[in-house]
Design goal:
Layout lengths: L2 H19 L12 H23 L7 H12 L8 E6 L6 H12 L5 E6 H8 L2 H13 L9 H12 L4 E6 L4 H8 L10 E6 L2 H6 L4 E4 L5 H13 L9 H8 L6 H14 L6 H13 L3 H12 L3 H13 L5 H5 L8 H8 L1
């Protein structure tokens, strides 16, 4: 290597290392443990690596483009005068987090500060609203070693610090009212033009906290489920003729839940569906129809267990006594333990 080339290489390394020195580092003293710190670092690196790719390939995820269009119209990004708080609700496994991540990657760079926070996971680490508030401030502003006296002080600190810059925040998987009230109780906490996204299974929680704009995520319809199934299993290759009906049955095993559909699709892909005969595929689909895959059972179970005790009781009564009855008929029934509001929670 001659001197000019060597000097150029040294110059590039000097420039790169100088740039690195200005980056915010992870401090092990602010994390619960090393595993959590590594997980956070890996997640952030992954987000950086795939942000541009994700923007360019939103259309590759079946139905995602329509979700982005629907949410963009609600967010009104061109409006700089007001704060928007948007809820995203839907049952477990329906794709709320994936949609929120896509929206975050698409919009967050337009804001002075931004963060994506898995509220349920962070809260569960210590069952502490105070810790959740401290972690939120660390994530969005990089404030290390912050110690708050109590949750009220935490709310005041968030309000004071975020009233002076436009932020984009995703509070993912909120499952308790106090979590939302402690992090984003009111639009007055934030600088004009800020956007706050909340994902939750509990639409009633959003209503209780005064979130008026809610985007409800529904299961995939049969057409989109089949499209997604073929997209994963055949990876863009046209499937063999004569399998459309069987593939339709296979795609319906997940009942329109994207997460379960992905698992089923991967299962068929690993099984070697492309090399199987029509008869073998028929047998495999029939077996899955008789005995659902554990994933779908787990998703439905988690959606049930997250309900309040009263709603679970109502659900069991309705499932056992009114199975197959029209919703309007069930709403008219006067049950000892609740009203149409409880039944409404079950429907949601």
């Amino acid at each position: 290597m001659n001197h000019p080339e060597k000097n150029q290489k040294v110059s590039k390394w000097r420039e790169a290392l100088t740039g690195v020195s200005y980056l915010n580092a992870y401090d092990s003293n602010t994390c619960v443990d090393e595993a959590t710190m590594v997980k956070e670092a890996v997640g952030e690196i992954s987000d950086e690596l795939f942000t541009e790719h994700f923007r360019d390939h939103v259309g590759d995820i079946v139905g995602m483009r329509s979700h982005m269009e629907g949410l963009s119209s609600l967010l009104e990004m061109e409006s700089e005068e007001e704060v928007k708080i948007i809820g995203i609700s839907g049952m477990g496994g329906v794709g709320k987090t994936t949609i929120a991540k896509c929206l975050y990657r698409q919009c967050s760079r337009q804001f002075e500060a931004h963060c994506f926070l898995n509220v349920k996971e962070i809260f569960r680490q210590r069952e502490s609203l105070l810790y959740l508030q401290e972690y939120f401030l660390f994530k969005i502003l990089g404030i290390e070693h912050i110690k708050l006296a109590n949750a009220e002080a935490g709310s005041n600190e968030i309000k004071t610090r975020l009233q002076h810059q436009k932020v984009f925040v995703v509070l993912d998987d909120v499952d308790q009212t106090k979590q939302l009230q402690g992090l984003a109780k009111d639009t007055s906490w934030f600088f004009p033009g800020s956007r706050i996204i909340i994902t939750t299974r509990d639409k009633g929680l959003l209503q209780e906290c005064g979130v008026e704009t809610v985007y409800t995520v529904k299961c995939l319809d049969k057409e989109h489920a089949l499209q997604r199934f073929k997209q994963i299993v055949f990876e863009g290759i046209p499937p063999p003729d004569g399998l459309e009906q069987l593939l339709g049955r296979a795609s319906q095993l997940a009942y329109g839940l994207p997460s379960a559909l992905t698992d089923y699709s991967q299962l068929f892909l690993d099984w070697g569906i492309r090399t199987k005969t029509k008869e073998e595929l028929e047998e495999a689909v029939r077996k899955f129809e008789e005995v659902p895959q554990e994933t779908i059972v787990d998703i439905l179970k988690s959606s049930y267990t997250c309900l309040s005790r009263m709603v679970r009781i109502a659900f069991l009564h309705i499932a056992c006594l009114f199975n197959g009855d029209p919703i309007l008929s069930v709403l008219k029934v006067k049950l000892d333990f609740g009203s149409s509001l409880i039944i409404g929670s079950i429907i949601q």
